[in-house]
Amino acid sequence: MISLSASKIMIAENYKNILEKVNNAAKVAGRDPKEVTLIAVSKYKPLSDLKEAYDAGARDFGENHVQEMLEKMPEMPSDVRWHMIGHLQRNKVKYIVGKVFLIHSVDSLRLAEEISKEAVKAGVVQDILIEVNVAGEESKWGGNLEETVNLVKEAGKLPGISIKGLMTVAPYTENPEENRKYFSALKHLSVDIEGQNKDNISMGVLSMGMTGDYEVAVSEGATYVRVGTGIFGERDYSSH
Length: 240
Ligand SMILES: *Cc1c(COP(=O)(O)O)cnc(C)c1O
Description:
Strand order of the largest sheet: 7-6-5-4-3-2-1-8
Mean pLDDT: 94
CATH topology: TIM Barrel
Distance between the termini: 37 Å
Order of helices and strands: HEHEHEHEHEHEHEHEH
Helix content: 25-40%
Structural class: alpha/beta
CATH class: Alpha Beta
Number of domains: 1
Bound molecules: pyridoxal-5'-phosphate
CATH superfamily: Alanine racemase
């Protein structure tokens, strides 16, 4: 008898279910499902879990910690696109520039400058997103809407980086509809910035929506949703 572990079935099923919901949310919003990519957020999860998601079709993986990501990278197939979604310290930038597909969490000019410096040194162009604290939460990274406009403008002048869009982490809520206004605000901001037509800046990418609210985010224009718990189950922080 072929025996699959329970988790294997679950992760594959979860991934496929969520992908289907993402696609449906796009269709309902009159969008092409191909515009939206589901990122499997695998922080704190063992490699075996990532491989199960990969076998179910996942190619985009999100990690929050540089060290953890660097450990997992060589163990996964080379067609995986790695997304740095967590707060990034400047002294860690050199380890990931040119290795990650997209850095979502650029929240200061100093960080953008560091990425630029390391990218130029490595002879690569690093794609980045600017993180926005749309709800103005104390506990969250990223600037407010006005600061974001300035940061995009200044970071856009730097060599070695290419700004692809915006990212936000919305407040935790039981009712995803409460976050619709924040997703909508991020979309509007990206359209405003796009309208200013700066070189080296495009606003096509919107990274927003997590396990609790990804369908609402898709309906408001997300091009990446970052889902961890919904795919892999609850995280165990105790061992870290
Ligand atoms: C952990 C994390 C996620 C995934 O959160 P879930 O609620 O588990 O889906 C998404 N984005 C960021 C920035 C995260 O840190």
